[in-house]
Design brief:
Oligomer: single chain
Number of strands: 9
Order of helices and strands: EHEEEHEHEEHEHE
Strand order of the largest sheet: 7-6-5-8-9
Structural class: alpha/beta
Distance between the termini: 25 Å
Number of helices: 5
């Protein structure tokens, strides 16, 4: 194994300058790898700069290690490693497309660690399990359907979601609709959206869960279904079976390594 070192300083701030949940789930896995192989063995300090509403995605990082994006530049003696490359000042600093034949975890490792980490060394990090009893979900029959999407090119059409929900219901199972419509996006022109309208059956949890609650619901359910998106990457951090559709991205570059669950 290649030992992690820093050519600049012993102290590193991992700057998660992305509003894409899938990118951040992959980055969490890379940071976990760095903590276990570099920071803990050497007792080397680190920080993680991120937006507060993504905090649930990094349960392994203590609160005292978290700073906001502006605070990262006030840290003394920390080298800043950015998840996404910087852009000209006239352009927004947003997540960019994964390079050809590069997995999300590998892409994140290049930006944060300046090296490519093998996938088997950076499985997705499970979110902290929280109570979801208030939602009254019959988990033995629950089929989670992800219904909101940021990109039109990777959106599951609303009418197709309804067809799937109807088929699920006819099998005696309970469709559970999850997603966020912009609440966890940080670029106004890329707010998550949906063509889906609640059909009147199943459990409607759109805009009603935190990231941690959504992950806990997914992990307890029979299966999670949807197109390639941030919530599906959250689902991949659980042990739940996942049916994940793809459009313009190669599946082998999006499906993460799971230690204890099938892909």
């Amino acid at each position: 194994m290649v030992e992690l070192t820093s050519p600049f300083t012993d102290k590193i701030c991992y700057y998660l300058n992305s509003g894409a949940v899938g990118d951040l789930v992959a980055a969490s896995a890379v940071i976990q790898h760095a903590i276990e192989t570099y920071h803990k063995p050497r007792n080397v300090d680190y920080r993680v700069a991120m937006q507060e509403h993504f905090r649930d995605l990094l349960p392994q990082v203590p609160d005292e290690k978290i700073t906001d994006l502006e605070g990262a530049f006030k840290l003394d003696g920390f080298a800043i490693r950015m998840l996404n490359m910087t852009r000209p000042v006239q352009l927004p600093n947003v997540a960019i497309l994964t390079p050809s034949r590069f997995h999300l975890v590998q892409y994140a490792s290049v930006g944060l660690l300046a090296r490519v980490v093998p996938l088997e060394k950076a499985p997705y990090v499970p979110l902290k399990e929280v109570s979801v009893t208030k939602f009254g979900i019959p988990f033995d029959k629950a089929v989670v359907l992800v219904v909101t999407y940021r990109d039109a090119s990777r959106m599951w059409p609303g009418e197709e979601i309804k067809k799937t929900a109807k088929a699920v219901s006819e099998m005696g199972l309970t469709p559970v609709y999850v997603g966020k419509t912009g609440a966890i996006a940080n670029w106004k022109e890329h707010l998550a959206k949906t063509e889906f309208e609640y059909p009147g059956f199943g459990i409607n949890l759109i805009d009603k869960t935190t990231l941690a609650e959504m992950a806990s619901i997914m992990g307890k359910s029979r299966v999670v279904v949807g197109m390639d998106s941030g919530p599906l990457h959250v689902a991949m951090s659980t042990n739940a079976p996942v049916v994940m559709g793809f459009t313009n991205v190669s599946p082998d570059l999006r499906i993460p390594y799971r230690k204890e669950a099938p892909t």
